Amino acid sequence: MYTKIAHINKSGEIQTIQEHLQGTAERAKEFASEFGCGEVGYLCGLMHDIGKYSEEFQKRIQNPKHSKKVDHSTAGAKELCSISSDYIPIAMAVAGHHSGLLDGGQARLAQSGTFFGRLKNELPKYQEWKREIEPTKASVPAFCMTGRHAVYTMSFFIRMIYSCLVDADYLDTEAFMTQNPPERGRGDSMTALLEKLQCYITPWLESVEFSHEKQRLLCENRTRILMECLEKGGGVQKGLYTLTVPTGGGKTTASLGFALKHAAMHHMKRIIYVIPYRSIIDQNAAKFSEILGEENVLEHHSGVLYDATEDQVQNAVAYRKIFASENWDKPVIVTTAVQFFESLYACKSSKCRKLHNIANSVIIFDEAQTLPVNYLEPCVAAISELVAHYGVTAVLCTATQPVLGSLFEKYLPNMSMNEICSGMEYMYECFKRTIIKDIGTLSLEGMLEKLTGKQQYLCIVNKRITAQEFYKNIEHEGAYCLTTLLCPVDRKTKIAEIRQRLYLGLPCRVIATSLVEAGVDLDFPEVFRQEAGLDSVVQAAGRCNREGKRSTEKSVVSVFQLEGSKDLFLGQNVSAFRWTQKKYEDVADQRAVEFYFQYYRELLGRENLDQKEIIKSIENGWDGSCFPFASVAGRFHLIENDTATIYIPVGEGEELIEAFVTGIQDRDGFRKLGQYSVNIYPEHLKALWDSGCLEQIGGSGFVLRDLNRYSRETGLQMDVDTGYGVFV
Fold first, then answer.
1. CA 89 to CA 37: how far, in whole Å?
2. Is the pLDDT of residue 225 over 80?
3. Quick one: which of 108, 201, 628, 650 has the fewest CB in 10 Å?
4. Are 457 and 565 in contact, with CB atoms under 8 Å apart?
5. What was the pLDDT predicted at 489?
6. How far apart are CA 412 and CA 254, in angstroms?
């Protein structure tokens, strides 16, 4: 007999399998205890790596260059299934802790690539595990066994327990493999963060003189909304809530007040802000960092993710890259809807690792009306599971509530959805600062003529290429083009300049896409909005006369149709908006908003709220396979057209990209690198690639090597000619 090794670090020190299993089990137990399943987490951790007891694995870990890869994940799953069929859900988490959750398959068929197929594989002998490890007892929670959606609930539980195991495994390995592992789980308590917020808002409560009566009323009502959110946060039970606040009503700070007071009251672990667009995530993260301290806020969206393969965990350099995959271990998380929901339906460790840290959290879904309609039912089902079984309070926060009560009732039949702020009908009247009017169909030339001679305006169009075309033809003193073709660092710079010019009364002519409609605090005297859905029009109106400095009658939001424009993806939104215009004189009225969303979903049909049949696939199986984790993950994409990330080597971005290419990028460097990136669609990528402008890095990322294709004024060029080359 000799010592059975789990890991060898770069100093040559040995971690035994028993040490690793015990350490992982304790961590997984701690994580799963947040939703009452600590013993299940412990059993997962204890059994996940017993395959490492095989002689084949021991030979490989001591001489990895001269031996075959060894499957060490299936052994624990096999043993769990042999103990009891009740342990199959736990075994599924164990089997996938490196390769990802597999489709279940069928127990009677040897389907390759499925869980039940994997169980039939021949494995190296690993019996010596029984000398050191004694399996503990655990029970799958009762809430997985009952109810109309029991199969869906069980699949959700498997992902959550898988998350506990994966994170525990990573952290235990990290602690051993690195001499100075990064500090994790650090941050102030919710009570301390609440005190920081109260210090921040104290000046709001002092009497201030205003030059306009409307400004005074706006300030008073924002304060009223904030104070009511703080009061409700400490006085209501965990559950499902709406926060319906007019544009300009200060909902970001007000929702933070509710979340902090509620989290402190109920001893909750963190607050998660789910934001619709990556383009505004940095602004929100910056605001929360200003209020709460940068050390308490984690900004996380799509970026470089790593999954641990069967043998990567033996390599200290490879494992340091895995550490860059976030596990959401800060008190306040700011993330995107894509990152949040795709993680909840993912199968890979890099995306699922953080899921257990959602338990016992307050989740704010900012701009809830932007939840993707084609995936609305799976999104609602996931939120419902978190609220029902994982100690989560969810808040749908927006100026235009999407009226989701009936859909939530399907998954939360015993729980009502309650509004946090009272008297919103009165509030909407107080916050009415604009007139929305339709100015009909105009050509590009006709629209440009409308803009000519105006000193300050915001014009929002539906496409990035349209914005670039408009920008070329407007008066250029104080002109700006804001689209996601600009990397975030350049957008932030421009938005700061725009605010300054507006404040000083200087010419400020802005052409933008919808990225300015959510979370970007700008105050223009006049706004033009290309026809879109009602929610977009109302959000655009929130950028006009935001501070009430001008009269309502003179603060006009002009909605226009652009001649020759074919926005097919907006067809049903526009149809619902036009019908709402016919029925309501004031389309910003809450009754009009409610009518719009109900009519819009009627146009779509109930079946189109889950176009990929995600819920049906989980509950009934997919292609003959139970629990189709991998199949569902492959079909659940909130953004249907896969985008590619282009890194722009300007400013600090050049140094960050070089660090990435050479493999010396650290965790913070990865996040900073996102500030110098642009996401583009396949046809745009192909044009740039064919023109020889790009260098591929990191598997799915690209560096723009021809900087003539990027302008810090308008962003990445869309009309790309092929044939570019370098002559030497």
1. 13
2. yes
3. 108
4. no
5. 92
6. 26
Nearest to 496 by CA among 510, 517, 513, 514: 510
> Nearest to residue 75, comparing CAs of 28, 133, 3?
133
- Structural contact between residues 581 and 587, judged by C-beta atoms closer than 8 angstroms: yes
DSSP classification of residue 720: P
- 3-class SS at 568? helix
- SS3 of 321-356: the string is HHHCCCCCCCCEEEEEHHHHHHHHCCCCHHHHCCHH
Tell me how far apart the alpha carbons of residues 145 and 148 are, in angstroms, rounded to a whole number.
10
pLDDT in tens, 429-482: 888 899 999 999 999 999 999 999 999 999 999 999 999 999 999 999 999 999
Give the tens place of pLDDT for each residue, 665-720.
Answer: 666 677 788 889 998 888 899 999 999 999 988 666 899 999 999 999 999 998 76
Phi, psi angle pair for 578, to nearest 5° = -65, -40
Question: pTM, whole model, 2 decimals?
Answer: 0.88
HEC-encoded secondary structure of 268-320: CCEEEEEECCHHHHHHHHHHHHHHHCHHHEEEECCCCCCCCCCCHHHCHHHHH
Cβ-defined contacts of 635-643 (< 8 Å, 24+): 636/341, 636/342, 636/345, 636/346, 636/375, 636/378, 636/612, 637/342, 638/337, 638/338, 638/341, 638/342, 638/372, 638/375, 639/338, 640/374, 641/681, 641/682, 642/682, 643/679, 643/680, 643/681
- Whole-angstrom distance, CA of residue 302 vs CA of residue 674: 9
- Dist. CA 55–CA 156, nearest whole Å: 36
**Do the strands 527-530 and 435-442 form a parallel or antiparallel pair, or are they unpaired?**
unpaired
Half-sphere exposure of 139 (CA within 13 A, CB side): 5
* 481-491 pLDDT tens trace: 999 999 999 99
Alpha-carbon span 134 to 668, nearest angstrom: 40
440: left (phi over 0), alpha (psi -120 to 50) or beta: left
Residues 683 and 644 sit within 8 Å (Cβ to Cβ)? no
Cα distance between residue 444 and residue 466, in whole Å: 9
- Rounded to 10 deg, the angle between the 88-95 and 150-177 helix axes is 40
Rounded CA separation 351/159 (Å):
11
Strands 677-680 and 694-697: unpaired
